[in-house]
Amino acid sequence: MQISELSDRSGLTVQTIKFYIREGLLPKGSVVSATRAEYDHRHLERLRLISALREVGDLPVAAIQRIVEAIEDERVSLHELFGTAQYAIGPHVAAPYDPHWRAARQDVDALVRELGWTVGDRSPARDLLAHTFVALRRLGFPITLTDLRPYVKAAAEVADHEIGRVADGAPRARTVHTLLVSTVLYEQVLTALHRLAQEDASARRFG
Amino acid sequence: MQISELSDRSGLTVQTIKFYIREGLLPKGSVVSATRAEYDHRHLERLRLISALREVGDLPVAAIQRIVEAIEDERVSLHELFGTAQYAIGPHVAAPYDPHWRAARQDVDALVRELGWTVGDRSPARDLLAHTFVALRRLGFPITLTDLRPYVKAAAEVADHEIGRVADGAPRARTVHTLLVSTVLYEQVLTALHRLAQEDASARRFG
């Protein structure tokens, strides 16, 4: 298809598509004449991924670049690729390295060990959790494994479901899409459903 | 205590505390002389709440104002108060009212009815979920109740636990703190644990 059709089908302007090509987010089309390049369904699929990451995941171009590079480098294992995507996505919270923060981060590391989870030391999710622990303590909410247990259980069940959703032997690009969609979009599904469920639980108890 | 002690114990500058008083987020202290006002533990507790909402929940002052007004108005029921807080917190996604968005929003409304959940029509979480449905479909992920079931189950279990955490007959201010903390901070706990659990599940399957 020509760039105009790619624009129609992706809902992005020709200008935006050319910008993504310049930034290396989208491969060039195959040149068929001096003024024409051909694009295929892989371009369309990539554009849909970029749009979703930009609009819903609110990812900067640099983060998308890192993800796209890992997708294209076949030597990167699926687990590494997923790590690259997850770490690029962040959120990267500031780690102030004050005593409260250090203590919280140690608690997170101890929790991960206790759960027996395999998680890289530089996972931004560790800092995110530590950040939240600091805020909870400042508000006078001590954190115990008992408080965390329902969250740990919910997170583990949802994550197992998500990784299980990846079909065996699926094409690499599709697998990456599925994993990224779980991390970025289904995380928001979980957040939205959590809010709806809270309102319902509040109605049942206090309404 | 004097404002200097309030500043020490809350970790906020005197300037910030005075700003919150001017904006109506914090009640004035009791005037004990022309140049001195006394503050008590309620001021400290309120400041901790404001800090957490600002820093971790990233809430604008206007949203905090609405929450504080509802806390102080005893005629507002706990369920309404929780709704006020949740709706102020957002996130408020733009509802473009194109056909895809309208279809997604109808699906959300149908899902909430099917689950039998009591949720206000204007809940921002409905729009948030619709927004995510649009993005999922754009990426070629059809949404079915089967896909959503693990998220619904996780959300409901966590929400029930959170509402259950509120002690019967607890002081109103404490109840509000607990509910807000569930919505803002424990939601981030869930997000962080979800990311950690995904990495672990990926390591087990693809590592």
Written description of the protein model:
Chains A, B: It comes from Actinomadura verrucosospora. Chains A, B: This is MerR family transcriptional regulator. Two copies of one chain form a homodimer. Chain A has 207 residues and is mainly α. Chain A has a domain of 56 residues: Multidrug-efflux Transporter Regulator, Chain: A, Domain 2. Helix content of chain A is 69%, strand content 3%. Chain A has nine helices and two strands. In chain A, strand 1 and strand 2 form a beta hairpin. The longest helix of chain A has 35 residues. Chains A and B meet through helix 3, helix 5, helix 7, helix 8 and helix 9 of A and helix 3, helix 5, helix 7, helix 8 and helix 9 of B.
Summarize the structure.
With 207 residues, chain A is mainly α.
What keywords describe this structure?
homodimer; 207 residues; mainly alpha; Multidrug-efflux Transporter Regulator, Chain: A, Domain 2; two-stranded antiparallel ribbon; DNA-binding transcription factor activity (chains A, B)
CATH hierarchy: architecture of the domain at 1-56 in chain A: Orthogonal Bundle
N/C terminus separation of chain A: 56 Å
User: What can be said about the biggest beta sheet of chain A?
Assistant: 2 strands, antiparallel
The portion of residues assigned to helices of chain A is 55-70%
Question: Helix/strand-derived class of chain A?
Answer: mainly alpha
Mean pLDDT level of chain A: 88
Radius of gyration of chain A: 21 Å
**Beta fraction of the residues of chain A?**
under 5%
Oligomer: homodimer
Order of helices and strands of chain A: HHEEHHHHHHH
Poorly predicted residue ranges of chain A: none
